Amino acid sequence: MLKINNLHASVEDKPILRGINLDVKPGEVHAIMGPNGSGKSTLASVIAGKEEYEVEDGEIILNGEDLEELSAEERAHRGIFLSFQYPVEIPGVSVTNFMKTAINETRKAKGLEDMPANEMLKLIREKSELLEIDRKFLSRSLNEGFSGGEKKRNEIFQMAMLEPKLAILDETDSGLDIDALRIVANGVNKLKSKDNAVVVITHYQRLLDHIVPDYVHVLYNGRIVKSGTAALAHELEAKGYDWIKEEVNA
Amino acid sequence: MELKEKLVSSFMAFENTVDVDSPVHDIRIDAMKTFEAEGFPHKKLEAWKYTSLKSILKNDFSVFPKENEALEYKDIKKYFIHDIDAYKIIFVDGKYSSHLSATTHDGIDVCLMSSALTKPKYKLIIDNYFNKIATKDGLSSLNTAFSAEGAYIHIPKNRVVEKPIQIIHFSTGNEAALMLQPRNLVVVDENSHVQIIERHQSLTENPVLTNSVTEIFVNKRAIVDYYKIQNDKQSASLIDNTFVNQKQESLAKVHTFSFGGKLTRNNLNFYQNGERIDSTMKGITIIGDKQHVDHNTLVHHIEPNCESHQDYKGIYDANSTGVFNGKVVVEKEAQKTNAFQANNNILVSDKATINTKPQLEIFADDVRCTHGCTIGQLDESAMFYLRSRGIPEKEARGLLMFAFSNNVLDSVKIPEIKSRITKLIAQKLGVNIGFDL
Questions:
Q1: Taken in order A221, A226, A230, A235, is the CA torsion positive or negative?
Q2: Closest approach of B230 to chain A, Cα-based (Å)
Q3: Chain B nearest C-alpha distance from A236 (Å)
Q4: Cβ contact (<8 Å) for A92 and B386?
Q5: What residues make up the domain containing A52?
Q6: Tell me, what CATH number does A65's domain have?
Q7: What pLDDT digit, counting tens, does each position of B201-214 carry?
Q8: What secondary structure letter does DSSP report for B79?
Q9: Contact predicate B400/B386, CB 8 Å
């Protein structure tokens, strides 16, 4: 599904990613862990098509297609979804209207008609129940005045609405209390299928208790320095990242 | 001949066409003297530093339009808020059009300035209110000198006028270039409520310059909601001089939607003559090309315990230019004043400019006055967020600009106006938003 080969990326001439290789197959869950500043969020943004990042070398292939020339919206239309670490507040646009626009623009890009209003309402009802979102919440301005937990839950609600092929969850666990974490993880698990894939970016292991990864990768200094199974996450939780740094720097 | 000379020499001929025994005869003569002395404003005047009339005044404007051709309602329906039942006072090339209008004398007067200035039954109101708050600057004086036609609205006390009143001034291009001087008077007596929509619309590419004066008297506990829709042709310019005099516990709101026209200057002045008055001025400006919009506002807080709210949003594309000059004066007696002013702008193009200048003159010591202005570009992180959800760049931009100007519409009470403005904004931004705000 997603294949990243030797990816180098920089922002304002400062190299951040220094040769990433990653292969994610349909039905898999990959976790990318690592200390602060290792390049985790940059990797997420580069896959999603943020323009500030310059891809210096390497390639990102989604289902056989090189993403290099594609804009953020075109990548979204092809099934990439990024759950933001810090979702942006957009006053004046309600959650519902935002989702309607996103879904219909995606349909338009695929040559489809707008989703009929009753179908849209049904979908919104179904997915908001999945994430235990109150109906009143949906008429509020997008992320404006939302608590940390509400923002993250709203991100996964959007993911549920858009049904991406590849979902990247960037630090989705940060700022979540245990109940919200359970709801979010439960939502992600229910959306998982053999045809889609999830990349979970996290600093801590606790989300991975709920969304169990098939593979765990450790990102350090812009490179994946270690890969393993879910057991690696537990080891990192117990021992921290210093031993990885020592291994790499040795 | 320069326009000023042409106007001065036309004045005699104009005077012959109107009743010289009219109570406003002397007012007109005085006003003409003021115009002769002051002339048109120029860039050396502080209040006109960023707005130049020079190129517009070069046109050879007709001052007295010929008889115009009749307009068919179906051809101009789109300029009306046509999906509501409304009173209508419609002018074509400065002349009243009876077949397009729907006036009334049933308990309220929604009719013509030409009647009010000549018929004895209106004399008392004219004596008490006409030209009492319009300033004696060159442009307002010019209008006063030529004041003959416009809307006359008088709402006696304790009336809630359910139907809004639409005032539309059409120009047909019958003249190669036309100058109009509409004069409106609105008097709302104690405890009454009225809603008014005003529009100036040119129907061809021939240059039009409208120099309009509107005096609005909002008496004790009265409510006035006034909507100005400015979306004229590229060849049309408007100088709108509006004066609002409020008495105690009254409420007046003026919304100004400026979406087009070559040059638009809004001189909007509020005078608070009483306690516990609320004055609101809101505006959305969305322009491009070489369009120019200048909002020049004044709130004069004269008595204690009053409020004023100003909220102007601007989106400027291409080579457009904007000005916001908001003056708030709080007199020594006006303690406990609460004055709020905000002017937020987005420059879409790097060739667009906005000059924004809050001016606070506060002589009282127990007041709350806040003001803020911002000039910015669209938030790039918000753009990426929207695009990452599949919303294309153009639509994302439109959505963010929509959201930016959205809250100004919260105070629009007539749903049909709200939806019309929403559509105009979408059209202006070139996007199909796909939902109503």
A1: negative
A2: 23
A3: 31
A4: no
A5: 2-249
A6: 3.40.50.300
A7: 999 999 999 999 99
A8: G
A9: yes
Find the CB nearest A90 among B387, B390, B403: B403
Tell me, what DSSP letter sits at residue B84?
S
The answer to whether B395 and B403 have CB atoms below 8 angstroms apart is no
- What are the pLDDT digits (tens) for A93-144? 889 989 999 999 999 999 999 999 999 999 999 999 999 998 889 999 999 9
Range B361-392 burial, b when 16+ CB lie within 10 A, else e: ebebeebebeeebebeeeeeebbbbbbbbbbb
Q: What is the pTM of this model?
A: 0.86
Extract the tokens encoding A141.
Answer: 């301005």
Are the Cβ atoms of B407 and A77 closer than 8 angstroms?
Answer: no
Token pair 């509107």: residue: B214
SS3 for chain A is CEEEEEEEEEECCEEEEEEEEEEECCCCEEEEECCCCCCHHHHHHHHHCCCCEEEEEEEEEECCEECCCCCHHHHHHCCEEEECCCCCCEEEEEHHHHHHHHHHHHHHHCCCCCCCHHHHHHHHHHHHHHCCCCHHHHCCEECCCCCHHHHHHHHHHHHHHHCCCEEEEECCCCCCCHHHHHHHHHHHHHHCCCCCEEEEEECCCHHHHCCCCCEEEEEECCEEEEEECHHHHHHHHHHCCHHHHHHHHC
Residue entry with tokens 């904004």: B425
- Residue among A82, A238, A57 at smallest CA distance from A162: A82
Chain A residues within an 8 Å CB radius of B382:
88, 90
What is the predicted ipTM? Answer: 0.95
Q: Per the structure, how many domains does chain A have?
A: 1
Nearest to A102 among B380, B390, B393 (CB): B390
| N-term to C-term CA, chain B | 51
Is the Cβ of A100 closer than 8 Å to some Cβ of chain B? yes
